[in-house]
UniProtKB/TrEMBL annotation:
<feature type="transmembrane region" description="Helical">
    <location>
        <begin position="35"/>
        <end position="54"/>
    </location>
</feature>
<comment type="function">
    <text>Component of the cytochrome c oxidase, the last enzyme in the mitochondrial electron transport chain which drives oxidative phosphorylation. The respiratory chain contains 3 multisubunit complexes succinate dehydrogenase (complex II, CII), ubiquinol-cytochrome c oxidoreductase (cytochrome b-c1 complex, complex III, CIII) and cytochrome c oxidase (complex IV, CIV), that cooperate to transfer electrons derived from NADH and succinate to molecular oxygen, creating an electrochemical gradient over the inner membrane that drives transmembrane transport and the ATP synthase.</text>
</comment>
<comment type="subunit">
    <text>Component of the cytochrome c oxidase (complex IV, CIV), a multisubunit enzyme composed of 14 subunits. The complex is composed of a catalytic core of 3 subunits, encoded in the mitochondrial DNA, and 11 supernumerary subunits, which are encoded in the nuclear genome.</text>
</comment>
<feature type="region of interest" description="Disordered">
    <location>
        <begin position="1"/>
        <end position="25"/>
    </location>
</feature>
<dbReference type="Pfam" id="PF02935">
    <property type="entry name" value="COX7C"/>
</dbReference>
<dbReference type="GO" id="GO:0005743">
    <property type="term" value="C:mitochondrial inner membrane"/>
</dbReference>
<comment type="pathway">
    <text>Energy metabolism; oxidative phosphorylation.</text>
</comment>
<keyword id="KW-0809">Transit peptide</keyword>
<keyword id="KW-0999">Mitochondrion inner membrane</keyword>
<dbReference type="GO" id="GO:0045277">
    <property type="term" value="C:respiratory chain complex IV"/>
</dbReference>
<keyword id="KW-0496">Mitochondrion</keyword>
<feature type="compositionally biased region" description="Polar residues">
    <location>
        <begin position="1"/>
        <end position="14"/>
    </location>
</feature>
<keyword id="KW-1133">Transmembrane helix</keyword>
<comment type="similarity">
    <text>Belongs to the cytochrome c oxidase VIIc family.</text>
</comment>
<keyword id="KW-0472">Membrane</keyword>
<protein>
    <recommendedName>
        <fullName>Cytochrome c oxidase subunit 7C, mitochondrial</fullName>
    </recommendedName>
</protein>
<keyword id="KW-0812">Transmembrane</keyword>
Length: 61
């Protein structure tokens, strides 16, 4: 009985939400501008790739 009432509550909460639906609408960033998305993804993945090189303490000379 408790499980059924919890299931009814969670499904009713989902139905009452007023969020837009569709591809990319549930992401924390905008995918509308492809050039901005390209720059943001390049910075995100580039920073992860470059971090070990900036953090290395081995002498280079």
């Amino acid at each position: 009985v408790l499980g059924q009432s919890i299931q009814k509550f969670t499904t009713s909460v989902v139905h009452r939400s007023h969020h837009e639906e569709g591809p990319g609408k549930n992401l924390p960033f905008s995918v509308e501008n492809k050039w901005r998305l390209l720059i943001m993804m390049t910075m995100y993945f580039g920073s992860g790739f470059a971090a070990p090189f900036f953090n290395s303490k081995a002498p280079t000379a």
